[in-house]
Amino acid sequence: FLLMIMGYDRYVAICHPLRYNTLMSPRDCASLVSCCWAGGSVMGMMLTLIVFHLTFCGSNKIYHFACHVLALLKLACGKETASVTMGVILVCVTALMGCLFLIILSYVFIVAAILRIPSAEGRHKTFSTCVSHLTIVVVHYGFASLIYLKPKGSHSMDSNTLMATTYTVFTPFLSPIIFSLRNKELKNAIQRSFRRKFSSLSS
């Protein structure tokens, strides 16, 4: 949900730059963030209610670093397990693909606006503002597709745990780092730090 709203932010900034302060005022930004929290809460409640219909009659050891819903489904037993698992996957995939569709739609308008810019330098500068967001979208949806859309087969518990951890931990951890790299002050500070380390090592 947050990546979708960030795509909308890029759309407004590039396609409607003169109206940006009006369309993305602090009040509007707060409303959009509230929608993210609401959407995430609804998703969490739906998945929790679905999982409450499961029966657990075996081991209570979850093969994950957190209480991930797919790892929890593997511990369930009973006739309803297959239908509940399919319901969870459908809810998750629907939310992921719905947000992805709106992100792609925003970039269709963004690319159309960029192509109308006469100078190559202007097009490059405008598109560079989207690189951080696009990188996170590709990383996030790449890992999500590995988890929810992978074919059933002989996957070890360790590989499943690693993939799920990458999706739930690595992507949120990576996001602020990638977005911070666009900050000139931060980049200069990192470069200075590396120069100091290399100069101390060479001496």
Automatic annotation (TrEMBL):
Domain G-protein coupled receptors family 1 profile: from-to ranges: 1-179
Pfam families in alphabetical order: 7tm_4 (PF13853)
Chain ranges passing through the membrane: 29-54, 88-115, 127-149, 161-181
Keywords noted in UniProt: Cell membrane, G-protein coupled receptor, Membrane, Receptor, Sensory transduction, Transducer, Transmembrane, Transmembrane helix
GO MF term list: G protein-coupled receptor activity; olfactory receptor activity
Superkingdom, natural source: Eukaryota
Subcellular location: Cell membrane
InterPro entries in UniProt: GPCR_Rhodpsn_7TM (IPR017452), Olfact_rcpt (IPR000725)
Claim: Translocase is one of the keywords in the record: no
Membrane disposition: Multi-pass membrane protein
GO CC annotation terms, alphabetical: plasma membrane
Gene3D superfamilies: Rhodopsin 7-helix transmembrane proteins
Protein name: G-protein coupled receptors family 1 profile domain-containing protein
